[in-house]
Amino acid sequence: MKNPKILIFKLGLLGDVIMTTPFVRQLRSICPRSEIQYWTSREFAAPLVGNPHLSRVLGFDSAPFYRKDVAGALRLRQRLRSEVFDIGFFLGKHWFFNAFAASLGIPRRIGFAREPISRWFLTDSVAYRELRHEIHYYLDLLNFVGEPDRSDIAMEVATSKECETRANSLMEQFRLDGFIGVINSGGNNAGESGFVRRLPSDFFVQLVRNLAQRTKVVLFGNTVDGEYYGAFSFPREVINLAGRLSFHESLALMRRANRMFTTDCGGMHMAGVVNRNITAFFGPAHPARKAPLLGNVEIVWPDRDKYDAKYDLYNLPPAEPLFQEIKIRRTSGAGRMHAGGQASVCLTRNRKSRTGGDSISSPVQLGASERILSW
Q: Which CATH number fits domain 6-144: 3.40.50.10420, 2.30.42.10, 3.40.50.2000, 3.40.50.2300?
């Protein structure tokens, strides 16, 4: 078929949707004249607004999938069937979404087979299990319609002049020249609870106060994060903007940060779109699957020895508390501190792994199980 009508279907989450943008860009390159629609949860559609590679973006209510609302799922099914797609890319990992895909009347259905049963519902599938970056897994799906470019992995989100103007106004209002952004979130969504990817509060407060001794600090996140930050007493150099900015305003302001300190969450991937100076704290997830593929990203992963692949594969909560050993101690030299932890992983874009494009260096040990945070 010369110009197939194409569906991309992904429930969420925010960071996962952002990580699909290299796939979207390359799909458009492979199918330059096709109508390409991206259907995703309404609350996670913002990263796709203004994407030049998509013909249409539709946000839908994802609650029926989590609440087992059969009537709601059937209504969505009818809307999708009425579009008469030729090819569907289903980017979720659970077999249920592939079963849903099989009910849409789409002749060619491409997706992931985490469990063997998924192959019954898909016409073409990629096995999802081994340790590889999510971006490369999405690019694997393109093998069924063309040839992906493994070097084209930059995440992409459109911005607007209005949001850039708003960011400039905030820079002036709060005198933010040289500021550092901080995000402490992750692990609280429709499929997960408990904030298992969030740093312990005592460490988070100590980190922010240390950073605020050097420059202004802006706290980013959603409304829930903003309420959490507001429970702590910070010096006036700390500005809590979580929940007060739109997605695109946050993105524009993150671009202006001297460095972003962030946990493994949607905000980390936002930062990865616009800022190359990132320190990312990882807990239950493996950085090789999720960390921004940028040359100078610092990964702090103190619980590497507790890693259980079941979290990444099945979203099962970790069996033990995480971030219990991480600490900060001051050292000599401006702008430097130590964060105690077991091991760190550095991701680069300079060399490829044997698994088809992951650019992951060997684990690094610094001093007595310490990681130097510098900016």
A: 3.40.50.2000
